[in-house]
Design goal:
The protein has about 325 residues and is of the alpha/beta class. It is built from 10 helices and 15 strands.
């Protein structure tokens, strides 16, 4: 049986099911429009830890434990953990696994890591290699600023095109059996470099990759945006979302049902400029607002596509452009 359509799209005949999910966010995110959907807020940025990096690990620990509790399984029943974050060598995830102690495959797709982990997990279950997998990502405003931009004490001015790294984490349990939202298809993205060098305009750097993945998926599946209740990208923000709509229109697709997690998570009066970003942005919105609305029957079939800017502090200092990537999963409620 073929499990592939075209060059990008994967089919999952077993339809791995999401049996548990959980979201944890910081104070600023909790004060935004999606407050009623998040499971937990941690309040102050250190979360009782001695560094922001340790606090980010705490975010992931809380989200993974919450997802396990919802699924009603123990960590010993997890066949493999797929996850990653934005910090060098994915230390937030690695240090979380010191306490979780499950088989682990670390991933790095920048802010696309949530969708990347879901694809890897679905492949693992559909291939018969696991009964339960755990997928999780995280980000933290303070740890990301320290690594990618300036120390917070510097007090630099943020241009209106910049985005606010979300302090948050989301975790998803995929299982071979159960009821709920299922992953039925996925599309693995390609690295697309539009030549953008502005670190304060990530939306413009990632939008071309999102367009490439979506157009390839529509062609492979012979569908259009109107075959889906919602298409939601990861963290293009307001500028990137508008640019993606324009790029899709140029390719013959009118996507009025397109939304973005980075545009949803903050309101205009929260001073987040172009919106949210970071691995925790799409992860926290998926594992709260999106999956809860699917389970409640508001939508029946959506496309979730997380986007990532594949750069590093070193490459930015060397004047390199910012390649983008976008990975997509199709979510359906039975």
């Amino acid at each position: 049986m073929t499990k592939r359509l075209g060059n990008n799209t994967l089919l999952f005949p077993s339809k791995p099911v999401i049996t548990g999910f959980y979201s944890v966010v910081g104070k600023k995110e909790w004060e935004g429009p999606l407050r009623q959907w998040f499971d937990l807020t941690v309040g102050e940025s250190h979360i009782g830890e001695t560094s922001w990096e340790k606090a980010e690990s705490k975010l992931m620990e809380l989200s993974t434990n919450g997802a396990l509790e919802m699924a009603g399984i123990s960590k010993e029943e997890i066949s493999v953990f797929f996850g990653g974050d934005l910090l060098n060598q994915c230390i937030a995830t690695n240090y979380t696994l010191r306490t979780l102690a499950t088989p682990f495959i670390g991933l790095y797709g920048a802010c696309s890591t949530m969708a990347e982990s879901l694809i890897a997990g679905a492949m693992c279950i559909d291939g018969g290699f696991a009964k339960n997998v755990l997928c999780a990502t995280s980000s933290h405003f303070c740890s990301a600023e320290r690594q990618f931009r300036f120390p917070l004490e510097y007090g630099g001015q943020r241009p209106q095109s910049s985005q606010w790294t979300v302090t948050g984490s989301g975790a998803t349990i995929l299982s071979e059996n159960g009821t709920g939202v299922r992953i039925t298809r996925a599309a693995i993205g390609k690295v697309i470099d539009a030549g953008i060098q502005d670190l304060n305009n990530m939306g413009a750097a990632m939008a071309p990759a999102a367009c490439d993945t979506l157009c390839a998926f529509f062609e492979d599946t012979n569908t259009t945006p109107w075959n889906y209740d919602l298409i939601v990208t990861g963290d293009l923000g307001n500028i990137g979302k508008d640019l993606l709509r324009e790029l899709l229109f140029q390719n013959g697709y009118a996507a009025q049902n397109l939304e973005d997690c980075g545009a949803l998570i903050f309101s205009e009066d929260q001073d987040a400029h172009a919106g949210g970003s970071g691995c925790g942005c799409s992860a926290s919105v998926l594992n709260s607002y999106l999956l809860k609305q699917l389970n409640q029957g508001k939508w029946h079939k959506i496309l979730f596509m997380a986007t990532g800017a594949l750069m590093s502090p070193t490459s930015a200092l060397q004047g390199e452009s910012i390649p983008g990537i976008a990975h997509l999963v199709q979510l359906e409620k039975e």
